[in-house]
Amino acid sequence: MKVNFLIIGAAKSATTSLSDGLAQHPDICFSQPKEPQFFSKTNWRHHISAYHALFTSKAKLYGEGSTNYTKYPSFNKQIHTDIFEYNPEMKLIYIMRNPIDRITSHYTHTYNRGYEHMQDINEAVFQNEHYISTSKYAKQIIPYIEQFGKEHVLLLFFEDFITQPQEVLNTVYRFLKIDQLDIDISSINSNKSFNRHVLHYKYDNPKTIWEKLKKVGLIIKNYFNRDFIDSKPKLTGATKKHIINDVTDDIHAIEKLTNRDLSKWLEY
């Protein structure tokens, strides 16, 4: 088998909901878990059998959705050529979101998962460049377009998916060359940043019964955790200006790539 398509980002831009929608199609098998981050590791060539084992049923197409694939240069710096080596016919799906909103959601998620330790989102944005780097969509996607060709890369927008999810799914079906399918939109996981079922990453993948019971207890305890962000953190005007100034040229590049007016993304 070969994995045929990847949802490569952007993080906190409804990639999980998009994956949930596509996974309902009978021609598609998604990996378990959805984000194996396989090509983020430079030693991926030694683990292809384990990667393929994540796809548990036979299907026409196999896909996964690892958002670390578009967090350059935080992970595998040769990721574009590595994925091409694995499958030069790979199809790539990239969904983008207003950078201010994406960064706010990104910070909230990473803090609640235990990867971020700064309690002030404004300080975190200035100190941790990956928030803005991940929001430079042209920087992230152009190397893929250059490597695979524009016909192998589908660019989508979060705002379209939120307002017209079925239409966006139909666009993806056409891109993947499979029949269109109307799905139950209510069944798509919204993956909200403030979901208190989200735990610190160290509790992922419990292996024993005791560890599983402990995880359930921690989920219950998390509802009373004061160190959990359960409302939208506020960016100051200065931070918003800093973000927009840094991503303006990149936004204009995406406008040219997509022939889309993104002027609202430049407002703060």
Compile the SSE list and pairings.
Blueprint: E1 5-9, H1 15-23, E2 28-30, H2 48-52, E3 61-64, H3 79-86, E4 91-96, H4 99-113, H5 121-127, H6 130-134, H7 137-148, E5 153-157, H8 158-163, H9 165-176, H10 209-222, H11 237-258
Parallel strand pairs: 1-3, 1-4, 2-3, 4-5
Explain how this protein is built:
With 268 residues, the chain is an alpha/beta fold. Helices cover 43% and strands 9% of the residues. The chain has eleven helices and five strands. The chain has a five-stranded parallel beta sheet with strand order 2-3-1-4-5, with helices on both faces. Strand 2, helix 2 and strand 3 form a beta-alpha-beta unit. The longest helix has 22 residues. It is globular and about 50 Å long.
What's the pLDDT, averaged over the residues?
A: 89
In quaternary terms, these chains amount to: single chain
The fraction of residues in strands falls at 5-15%
Radius of gyration, taken over Cα atoms and rounded to an integer in Å: 19 Å
Strand ordering within the main sheet: 2-3-1-4-5
Distance between the amino and carboxyl termini: 47 Å
Q: Supply the helix-strand structural class.
A: alpha/beta
Largest sheet: 5 strands, parallel
The sequence of SSEs as H and E is: EHEHEHEHHHHEHHHH
Number of strands: 5
